[in-house]
Structure formats: structure tokens, C-alpha cells
Amino acid sequence: MTIPRAAKTLRRTRIQEEKEEQILEAALDVFSASGFRGSTIDQIAEVAGMSKPNLLYYFRTKEAMHRALIDRVLYTWLEPLRAFDAEGNPEEEIRSYIRRKLEMARDFPRESRLFANEVLQGAPHIEDELKGPLKELVDEKAEVIRAWAKAGKIVKCDPYHLIFSIWSTTQHYADFDVQVRAVLGQEHSGDGRFEDAARFLEQLFIGGLRPDPIGT
Amino acid sequence: MTIPRAAKTLRRTRIQEEKEEQILEAALDVFSASGFRGSTIDQIAEVAGMSKPNLLYYFRTKEAMHRALIDRVLYTWLEPLRAFDAEGNPEEEIRSYIRRKLEMARDFPRESRLFANEVLQGAPHIEDELKGPLKELVDEKAEVIRAWAKAGKIVKCDPYHLIFSIWSTTQHYADFDVQVRAVLGQEHSGDGRFEDAARFLEQLFIGGLRPDPIGT
DNA sequence: GGATAATTTGACCGATTGGTAAACATTACA
DNA sequence: TGTAATGTTTACCAATCGGTCAAATTATCC
């Protein structure tokens, strides 16, 4: 007699490990490309190379798959912001935050699009994460930035909108990739666009945040 | 005997005018919230307050509705960039471009999300518009910016990435609205966030683009 | 007012959706 | 090696999908 579904066993088997990995990889492909509602279990099953019921043996519902995927990716996704160091040199911290975020847009565009799709469609599945862990992390780092501004190390500015602007400019290269490529044309659509973007964004943010020469 | 479908008549009736308007309004609601694949004709019909066959009398397919919607919205959407004036004062042109884009994010968030959804999911329906009219417009304005830089009116920078960064930072407030609200918390989620954003972005871009005091 | 064209709807279609039941196959472990 | 738990598949389900059809209703114009 079979116990209804996977994950009921106390110990995870090797097969469970492998198949869940395989499924989440496929789910990332599909969800990031079509959003939750636009994706189908059949698509994911095909990409994962297994039958639909087999996939549903590991994740009971489409929502469960999405949930597991979000959980797995979210922590990693916030890593660059977490690395933001209050003790470091402001200019260097911001520069390296931009660089890291840009590297993630280049190396993990599917993860970026997964969240973009989710947030764009009203974040029905991650509202709690946004209002909880994300807000707390941003609040903490905003305080760091505010302190830098107060100490005259950078210009006085709204730290939240500064963070938003770094998020949006960097993630743009993952989320709006096809538009960026279309506008730049074939000749500038190689990986060089990320270096150009990095150069421009550092110039913009470092220049834009440099403290006023005359204190006020 | 009925001629198969609407729009076959040479003269558009009053009813056609009204109903098509009504449908596109509903379609904007639904498509912008769920993307093309995630939206259903039934949803749109319900929002539009009419039966599904009636809706399909005016637009033969879901794609036709989407197409009509995109066409109607695209021209308006590019208006701010078109207004970018080569003869104007660079600082003032950039400032007002940011302000205009931010106003559009505030006043027409559905339009912004419509495009965001489309581009995010690979732009399957607007590839031609991106590579054609959009690219041409951006090329033209990039040349203006390049000339300003050459003349020392603004700092030397990549004009394409400058435009991208204005797009991304401003549209962020429409496309990622729920995230912005979640992070800012209830107390800062009123319309005031657009004024704060405007202030910050002007500071960032004007400061970041100010020409080097020492030439070269 | 009546003919004609335009509009609207309920009933329906085949395909696809998320998900299930149960038989079958494989693995782990004593 | 046997057996119980785990893993996989075929066949299927009701609901929903995009879309059609023919009949009924309404507007238009002479």
C-alpha cells in the first residue's frame, strides 16, 4: 500500500532529491517565461522530462511547485543587499552592490524574471515575504545609507528610492532583455552590454551621490 | 442574413465605437494584470459586462484584442521620449523627461504593466515594434544626447544606457508597485511616494550627468 | 411600419487545464 | 532473495479554455 504522496517519508531518498531538483529547474524555466497563471503543469513536465502524474507525485499542486521555487530562490536573490556593509566605504559599497546585482541579472535572468512576473501580477504568492523579510532587510540597509548621508559621506537623499533605483536599473537587463537587445541592435547585443551598463551605472550613481563640495 | 463579423461595414456605427472602447478598456485591465497567456476571454467579457460571443463579435480572437490594445497604447506611451528636444537645455530636458515618465507611471500604470508583461515574456507580439519604430526613435534621441556630451553640456556617457536607466527607474513605480508599497510600508504608500521618487531621481540624474568641472 | 442590417445571446464544440485512481515497476533493506 | 515502501505510468475526470453557430433581439432607414 502506497502512502499518498512524497515528502511523507521522514528521510528524503536520493531519487527524491534528484527529481525535485530536476522539477524545480524546469519550473524555473517555465514560470519565469510565462508567469504563474500562464504556465501549465504539462509544460513543466515536458521540460523536466517526466510525465505529469510523476511530477505531481513530488509536488501535489502547481502552487506547491511555485511556492517551493520561490522559497529556494528568494534567499539567494537578496544576498547582494545583505552583503551591503555599514562599515565599508560608501562609494565602494554602492559600486560593488551595483556590480553584483548586474552580475545576477546576467547570470540568473530566469530568477529575476520569476520575481518580476510575480510582482508585476500583484505578488499574490509572495506578499508576506515582501512585507516581512524584504521590508526588514531594506529598512536596515536604508538606515545605513541614511547614516552615510548624515555623516556627509554621500549626498543627502532618500535611501529607499536609492535602493529602488539600483534594483530597477540592474534588473532591467534581465527582465527587459528582449527590449534592450532590440534597441541596441544585433551588433551590441553580445555580453559586452553588461560591461557598458556597469560602466554607465557606476558613473551615474557615483556621480549622482557624491557629496556636495560645500557642506550645507 | 448577417454579415459574419463587425468591422465589415464600411461605416462604423455608434454602437461599434462604444463597445470596442468598452472592450479595450476591460482588456487593458485584464491583460495588464495577468499577461496575455494568463488572461482569458471570459474574464475580459465579465469586466466589460457583456457575453463572450458578443465580445468575439467585435474582436474575432484573443490575439486581435491584444493587438488592437497594443496599437492603441503604444503611440501614447512613447510620447514623452518623442518630446525630448534637441534644441532645449539638456538639464531641463532630462528633468522633464523623468517627470513625464513618472507621471505616466502614476497615471497609467496598467499601460506600463501591459508592456512590461509583454516584454518580460519575450515580447512575442511586439517584436516588430521594438526593432522598428522604437529602435529608430531611441537611436535618434541617443544621437541628441551624444551631441550634448560632445559639446560638454553633460558628462560623456553611453546614451542608450542612460535612456534605459530612466525607463527602468520610472516604470518601476508602476510595474513593481506592490513591492514598492510593501517596502515603504503603509505610511509612505500614499501618492507622496511619486513626489519623493521625482525628487530623488532628479537629484540622481542631474548630479550624475553634470559635466566634469575640468574638461576632458 | 416594415424590411433589412446590426447586435446579442444560450447552447454547444473540441482541446486543454489541473488533478486523481489504480495498476505496474523499481528500489531499499532485512 | 523476498517484501514492503517508493516511484512511474496509463487511463481518466470535471472544469475551463478559445471559439462557433443559429436563433433571437434590437437598431436603422425607407
TrEMBL record, chains A, B:
Source organism (scientific name): Rhizobium anhuiense
Keyword Hydrolase attached: no
Name this polypeptide is given: TetR family transcriptional regulator
Residue ranges constituting the HTH tetR-type domain according to the UniProt record: 17-77
InterPro entries the UniProt entry points to: Homeodomain-like_sf, HTH-type_TetR-like_transc_reg, HTH_TetR, Tet_transcr_reg_TetR-rel_C_sf, Tscrpt_reg_YcdC_C
Stored Gene3D superfamilies: Homeodomain-like, Tetracycline Repressor, domain 2
DNA-binding region, residues: 40-59
One Pfam match: TetR_N
GO biological process entries: negative regulation of DNA-templated transcription
Listed SUPFAM superfamilies: Homeodomain-like, Tetracyclin repressor-like, C-terminal domain
Keyword annotations: DNA-binding
DNA-binding as UniProt keyword: yes
Gene Ontology terms for molecular function: DNA-binding transcription factor activity; transcription cis-regulatory region binding
